[in-house]
Amino acid sequence: MILDDGILKIYKVVPKKTKTGKPTKKLKHLVDAWYGIINTSISEYYDAKQADVDIELRVEILQNKEVTSKNIIVIDKEQYNVGRVYHGLDEDGIPITDITLEKVVEKI
Fold it and tell me: How many structural domains compose the chain?
């Protein structure tokens, strides 16, 4: 595993209310992590397309079981929804978290 593509920021989406009581959302920073980009297979890309999901990027970080599909990840000021999360071991037996990212259309 080589995590040399940069540092990503992982956020939790927290429900809030405006002064008028209107529901809104806010991002709460959880952790920063070094990441490495993983190539997306053609079959994974087409499976996602059939489910009407656009995979923008796939990355891996050192294992962090707090990462879920409800998180937002920021890389180079771009926000991504977490599509799929896999907590497991890489080919060297190192615990990793494999994350599939979808581009956020409406930023929080």
Answer: 1
Kindly state whether residue 69 falls inside one of the protein's structural domains: yes
Alpha-carbon Rg for the chain, nearest whole angstrom, is 15
CATH number reported for the structural domain that contains residue 36 in this entry: 2.40.10.270
pTM over 0.90: no
Q: Which residues pair with 85 in a beta bridge?
A: 99
pLDDT in tens, 27-76: 999 999 999 999 866 666 556 555 555 778 999 999 999 999 999 999 99
- Which residues contact residue 54 at a Cβ distance below 8 angstroms, ignoring those fewer than 6 apart? 48, 102, 103
- Cα separation, 107 vs 16, in Å, equals 15
Does an H or E element contain 71, and which?
strand 71-75
Buried b (16+ CB within 10 A) or exposed e, 1-31: bebeeeebbbbbeeeeeeeeeeeeeebeeee
